Amino acid sequence: YEIMPSLVGSEMCIRDSDIVVNGLKRLEYRGYDSAGVIVEGGDNNFELKKTKGKVADLVSISKDLEGTAHVGMGHTRWATHGVPSDRNSHPHLSNNGKIAIIHNGIIENYDTIKTMLIEKGFTFASDTDTEVLVNLIQYVMDTQNVDFPTAVRYALNEVYGAYAITVMHKDHPGLLVVGRLGSPLAIGIGEDEYFVASDASPFVEFTKEAIYLEDGHMATISLEKGIEIRAIVDNSVVIPEVQELKLSLEQIEKGGYEHFMLKEIFEQPKSIHDTMRGRLLVDEGIIKMAGIWDYLDKFTKAERIIIVACGTSWHAGLIGEYLIEEFARIPVEVEYASEFRYRNPIITNKDIVIAISQSGETADTMAAIKLAKERGAFIFGICNVVDSSISRFSDAGAYTHAGPEIGVASTKAFTAQLTILSLLALKLGKHNGNLSNVDFMRLITELDAIPKKIEDVLASTHDYVKNMAKDFVSASNFLYLGRGYNFPAALEGALKLKEISYIHAEGYPAAEMKHGPIALIDENMPIVIIAPRKGHYDKIVSNVQEIKARKGKVISIVNKGDEQVSAMSDYVIEIPETSECFSPIVASIPLQILAYYIAVYRGVNVDQPRNLAKSVTVE
Ligand code: F6R
Prior knowledge:
- By secondary structure, this protein is an alpha/beta fold.
- Helix content is 37%, strand content 24%.
- The chain has 20 helices and 28 strands.
- Strands 1, 2, 3, 4, 5, 10, 11, 12 and 16 form a nine-stranded antiparallel sheet that branches.
- A hairpin with a 5-residue loop joins strand 3 and strand 4 (46-52).
- Helix 10 packs antiparallel against helix 17.
- The longest helix has 20 residues, at 412-431.
- It is globular, with a radius of gyration of 26 Å.
- The N and C termini lie close together (10 Å).
- Bound molecules: fructose -6-phosphate.
- Residues 310-313, 357-359, 362, 365, 409-410, 495, 499, 615-616 line the site of fructose -6-phosphate.
């Protein structure tokens, strides 16, 4: 899985490579174990620099790129085939040195093709599937007497898997050939230049016009002929739809914060408000959701809702289950997308499948909804990235308008997902009569107050949590406990900590503790316990007593003015009170801050934790 921006432009090479390398910095959150750049140098030569490591390492070795270039492309990688190393970094060249490729995705039948190419005398300098594809393109050109774009098309018809590729040819200066299947690819249209990237962030300061290439399409891009899009399968012409980008530069920069993650934590009052804007109309006593307007009856007649997602989005899905079952009384099942797609699930046309995904590109979630659609289910997508693959594949959906989330650890997208799921559950409950008007009004008034409560919790807990985080820098394990709605919040708190600080952490339903994890508790074990007043408080008091009896170190998240749990806790984080069903939104904030500062004090790269990537477009 790899990411690339590329550029066709009329300027000098050094500017081109700067644009490409700066663009890579914007995409680095999606993969960052090696990076490379290639430009057309003088005399139709390629100038190629690539290295294991981050884009910063590439910057230091690519300063001396020279020549006049019209085309350049670069890549930042998250290794799939072959360890991160200089030789496995992209771009890759064909054996004759004439064709260069960058690739995001996996070519699943690369092994068979590689064997065939080796028999034909090809050699390979890397362990990647990508190098197989570029040599297949050369082989097609050598043997079939077709031009460069046609050879790319023929080769793409021979591979299966997922790809977004950009290809250059030495004998075709000023031309880029791109194609996609499964992995995203956006083309930016500048005044006298074109841009290609996995998303629009690398070129948003140069143009607001973009085309999102559809699956199974390829394009040739040159200043001479502009953009020509065709279907890979039969070369039929495709008329592109040019879209106006809503993304702004400010949204994708750090705005004075040390890390994107901290910026995104602090953005939550606004991102939650943006997610509710125009939908939650308290004065009118309604929830308006365009995405379900035409399908309300479909939802209320659904025999079952299945939520599919991965990671943090799966945790949001678990809370979605509680919300929808409580308020709309529709049975809900929540599935890891990766398990669902491979276990031959029973799905009927009376099912609604909700896919939750920040990126809208997660391969497992995408595959799960493809399977569900094939079997007749109606697909509802909850995505953050506008025009992402999952949002486009869904029959209907609702965007979480959280804005770009760049820190690898999901924060504001999670609380925006909870906001959408709350709106959905309340809307459905009101529509199908399971929620009385009085309760509906009470709950929407509560929900409306959440952004302000998040503002308060950020202001009142940040410094305290930042300070207490110092005491846990050397911890090697953590337990997170919660009950009811806050059990998934505990899972999410644990995931946040482990993914960015590399401290082992587990989330558990508080009552399950005595069935196993209690054996782990001693004076060295920090236990985060989410204990708002509304939500099985008395039971949690007993759980805390059990922990204290074993000398565990209790960090409690309680409502302001709490006495019982606070009295037994070593650290007390106070959050404002809200309805139980919205309490995970509020409780998640200090958990995010805690994970963030523990990771910062451990000297970890918070925005780019090891081995992770923001959008997981491989299985
Ligand atoms: C955790 C995290 C991941 C993602 C997961 C799904 O902080 O970010 O666990 O939640 O990879 O990604 P999306 O939501 O893009 O489908």
